[in-house]
Design a protein that fits this description.
elongated, mainly alpha, 2 strands, single chain, Arc Repressor Mutant, subunit A
């Protein structure tokens, strides 16, 4: 979505170009773009001048909309969205903390737009994103530093 936001107004972007630049398989990208199109966040055009474009200006698309289209409701723990999923729900001592954290995350995602991401993403001299990739999960280590 950031790639589409960066080129907003310059015409559709080919899926193959997005796939190559973002290092995402075409099959997986097709799945993502289909969900985004069904949510009304992107449009697609076929033909020689075809590709994908944002359905609205980048400043009008919130990150929360993108995540909800791809992942569903943003919720940190199941008990915040599924009543009765936990036998301890009524007397849980940490549920309130989880709710406050979840509300804070949702508020940030609602506040950030694609335009914000484009503006705040440093670019390398070749036009590629110079920002860091998300951290990979590390295996838990024992006290002695050995992998468990």
């Amino acid at each position: 979505m950031v790639r589409l936001a960066r080129g907003h107004g310059e015409g559709p972007v080919l899926m193959s170009a997005i796939s190559k630049r973002e290092e995402v398989s075409r099959k997986y990208l097709h799945t993502l773009l289909t969900a985004l199109r069904e949510a009304g966040l992107v449009t697609s055009a076929r033909g020689a001048r075809g590709g994908y474009s944002l359905a609205r200006p980048p400043g009008e698309i919130r990150v929360s909309e993108v995540l909800e289209a791809l992942e569903g409701e943003v919720v940190l723990v199941d008990c915040l969205s599924e009543e009765g999923c936990c036998a301890l729900e009524e007397r849980c001592s940490v549920r309130g903390v989880w709710k406050r954290m979840n509300d804070a995350v949702v508020a940030v995602l609602d506040d950030v737009t694609l335009a914000d991401l484009v503006r705040d993403t440093p670019m390398a001299s070749d036009g590629e994103c110079a920002g860091a990739r998300p951290a990979r999960r590390r295996r838990a280590r024992s006290r002695k530093g050995e992998a468990r």
